[in-house]
Design goal:
- This protein has three helices and six strands; from the N terminus they run αββββββαα.
- It is α+β, with helices and mostly antiparallel strands.
- Among the domains are: 101 residues, Umud Fragment, subunit A, CATH 2.10.109; 70 residues.
- Helix 1 runs antiparallel to helix 3.
- The longest helix has 93 residues.
- The relative contact order is 0.10.
């Protein structure tokens, strides 16, 4: 039972570490590519983003992790959900809303967007978008809650507590197991050597005991033979004396 529990626990820890390593890779790639691409991450041709508000609810919720695909900024249509650069409270940010109007004036195209959540966004956005503001179009692929997790992991504290610390502890645990295996193998080698030495001593003792027993048997046999020979001589002497007495009579 304990072995089964240990195996399950070991498998769980291994899977957890693999997941954490994958998350750290995603964070690292996103961070590196974002610095080289005007703040926009690039993950194998797609741009991942964490949804920061509920302005697109129920389509998207705060904490969702969405994937945006690069597109032709001049071929978008009403109904497309796009991620774009805009200014909110004087700060340049990334936002994701749905296109509700397309305005064309000669070669110039502008898009008007609005969040799906009519409670928080009852009116279309005032600022119109140009094709150059558009980062990409939402691919209808999202992972709930993952965005919130990655946002936390993106902080120094979160990255240390959830990524570095578990990996460090896992590494130390593996080192401990390796040392334990080495010590165990050394102990086994010592015991085997001791057993081999003991076996040789036992063999020598058995041989010595056998030889001593054999010598004792030989001595006893020799003694018996001597006794028997003495008795034979005595009997022969008695027989001769009796014969001599018979002749004299």
């Amino acid at each position: 039972m304990n072995k089964v529990v240990k195996k399950i626990g070991s498998a769980f820890v291994t899977i957890l570490i693999v997941v954490l390593i994958l998350l750290s890779i995603i964070i690292s790639i996103s961070s590196i590519t974002a610095k080289a691409n005007n703040g926009v991450p690039d993950l194998f041709g797609y741009t991942p983003f964490s949804v920061q508000t509920d302005s697109m609810k129920p389509t998207l919720s705060k904490g969702d992790y969405i994937f945006v695909e690069k597109c032709d900024g001049e071929s978008l249509e009403v109904g497309d959900v796009v991620t774009y650069f805009t200014f909110i409270d004087g700060k340049r940010v990334v936002n994701t809303h749905r296109i509700v109007n397309v305005y064309k004036n000669g070669d110039m195209i502008q898009y008007q967007t609005q969040g799906d959540n009519k409670e928080t966004n009852p009116e279309p956005d005032e600022k119109l978008l140009s094709p150059g503001d558009v980062i990409g179009k939402y691919t209808d692929t999202k992972i709930p809650v993952l965005g919130k997790i990655l946002d936390y992991l993106g902080t120094r504290v979160g990255f240390f507590l959830v990524i570095l610390l578990p990996v460090l502890l896992f590494t130390l645990y593996q080192i401990y197991k390796l040392i334990a295996v080495i010590l165990h193998n050394h102990k086994v080698d010592v015991l085997n050597a001791a057993n081999e030495s003991t076996s040789d001593e036992v063999k020598e003792a058995i041989i010595a005991e056998y030889l001593a027993k054999q010598k004792l048997e030989e001595a006893e046999n020799a003694k018996q033979e001597e006794t028997q020979e003495a008795e034979d001589i005595k009997q022969e002497s008695e027989d001769k004396e009796k014969t001599s007495e018979d002749e004299n009579n």
